[in-house]
Amino acid sequence: MNNTERQEIVYREILRMLMPDNLKSNIAHLDVMLDFYYKIIVNLFNATFKYQFQAEMSHSV
Amino acid sequence: MMFTKAKSFRVLLDGVSHKSLKPLVDHTALFTIARSAYELLFSFELVYIIPDTDEKRLVMRDAYIAASAVNRQKIAENNQAMQNDQLEKEDKATIEACKKEIEKTSFFQTLSNKKRHELEKHLFDKGDYQFIIDKNGETFIHVGWDEIRKYCGLDSDILNGLYKYLCNMSHPSYMSLVQFMNAYKNGDIYDMADYATMTMNIILSVFIVDYMHVFPEAKCVFESKDEDTRFKIRMYCDYFRGKCQNVL
Predict the structure, then answer these.
(1) Is A1 part of any domain?
(2) For chain A, N or C: smaller number of CB within 10 Å?
(3) Residue with the larger pLDDT of the pair B248 and B23
(4) Is residue A21 classed as helix, strand or coil in its secondary structure?
(5) Is A13 contained in some domain?
(6) pTM (2 decimals)?
(7) Cross-chain residue pair B233–A32, CB shorter than 8 Å
(8) So where are chain B's domains?
(9) From the candidates B41, B244, B248, which should be mutated to test the interface with A, based on the most A CB atoms within 10 A?
(10) What is the tally of structural domains in chain A?
(11) A41 part of a folded domain
């Protein structure tokens, strides 16, 4: 086993220990990724989601 | 589409209520979204990440577009109510255009007649874009959702059977009915929701990291984040790909 392989095993073990182990932490983790991804698609690529469900519903009533 | 899936998943985690009913979490609905997000992730991987040249990426993109037009045609063939002449014309034109583009590539031209026929049948008759072109231009067709991950560095044993599990939990199988019944009796719902959320986190982490690879502009946003946030975004991807160089 070379040094890089050894480092990777250690790193993976650290990651495994740091992984959220309950629903609350997993949801908090999901929120972090959602906030980040939202920032990318909305701020960077100008995704607008202009056609919204609420608007469609108000037309159909 | 990945954002709206993940956000819908997140909303469901807060539970849905009806009149006097207290908010409930339906884990089968969570797994249905997770399964769909899994397929979306690996469609993205098939088109953008697995191909090692721009030409192969274009072949996969055209295959992806053509397959969806082929499948829409098939639906119309089997259901008169779904027939739409205008759409049918558009789909036919789309399929033809994609076919021409694929045939023009050096990848396609170097295939043997047998391989060409095999690929065309797989793609244009079956409407299946799940195939891999490896570094040597070799094609592998009939690659299932669970196999695709092995071509993009996600061959960790821990992920073995994950897709099958997502399918089982999404379908109204007997196993899922029994689990549903028990989930609210003994509190299993908590563990189910926890596992579904962890799965969604894995999918989202890999997707975001690979998205930044395809759209490097996004890296500026990533780099503007603090170390803790960057770590949280990448950790599942790093863990399952076994890479540590970019974080340490």
Answers:
(1) no
(2) C
(3) B23
(4) coil
(5) no
(6) 0.87
(7) yes
(8) 2-39+157-241, 53-134
(9) B244
(10) 1
(11) yes
